[in-house]
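Action item from last week, closing it out:
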Amino acid sequence: MTATTASADARAPRLLVVRNDKLGDFMLAWPALAALKKAKPAPHVSVLVPAYTAPMARLCPWIDDVFIDPGEQAPKDAQRALLATLRQGGFTAMLTLYSTTRIGWLGLRSGIPLRMAPATKWAQLFYNRRVTQRRSRSAKPEYIYNLELAEAMIQALGLSSGQPSQQHPVPPYWPLAPQQRDAQRSALGQALGLDDTRPWVFLHPGSGGSAVNLTPEAYAGLAQGIDRRLAESGERPPHWILTAGPGEEAVAEALVKTLDEAGLSAYRQPACAGLADFARSLAAADAFIAGSTGPLHVAGCLNLITVGFYPSHRSATPLRWQTCNDADRRLAFHPPTDAAHQDMSAIDLEAAAAATAARLRKVNHHRSTA
């Protein structure tokens, strides 16, 4: 367990929120966590997450305590230790944003009196409050489904939402202070010798193995198309900063070389000391381009301009896995309906380049008039 902040109101319920899967899934829980923490009185919010996403949980302003889920493959003594910890937590309620049978059974055995989860799969049998959502239809963004669960929990606990009726918390869901953003931008500018009057665009060509993505060649063509359009309209083209996850460094470095040879201003992002340092570093960007990966959703929580590339499969659509930034800061592209749903080569990169260049012109205009 790791403590962060603490709820001051002794009347506040103690709430355990579970989202123990991948980084992108966890980042799309931040709007729900914000809604819970803005309730009156504000609950003490703990989360159960895997070790991988724990560094982000410790950065989240809506979380008080972090508990590590060792996972279903962990030894029995680790599972027993987690159960003992949760039994001692004095939790009023448990909200599982995505449940499995193991987690449902864990909540029941922990003796948490109010346990809520989506009404799906066998795991729902372990919960005494269920919310019907039918997420498999992908009719709403994932973060909206999570928000609906948070609002149901607020109502079940008899709390005030702290928001006007029918209004959700608004971006940014990771509200960094301007000084923190300025510090990240200054550090990156000094490390790479960047011109602050040009847009800084982070490009993340890897997928983390979680989603199909554009090829490095397609990303190179996209970047060149964006540069060309800005140059044609008399605008300064961006600095391109290539980022990479573990094991993706060679792809990023090769793409830097390709862009440099094409005459673009391209750099490899300086090494980061782990996930939290990498996430904070994204605050230096004006825009973030990637497939439907965890880093794209970190950028969304920071309310950066995001340009995402998605397959068209129902479970992975741009609507379902929409970033949670403001709508006017969000671009998403996917194969047309007459193409195979994972045929990323069918995406219209000319249209993507034109739309992205238009957003970057607004960045340039804002800088010139600031």
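Closing note: DSSP finds twelve helices and 13 strands in the chain.
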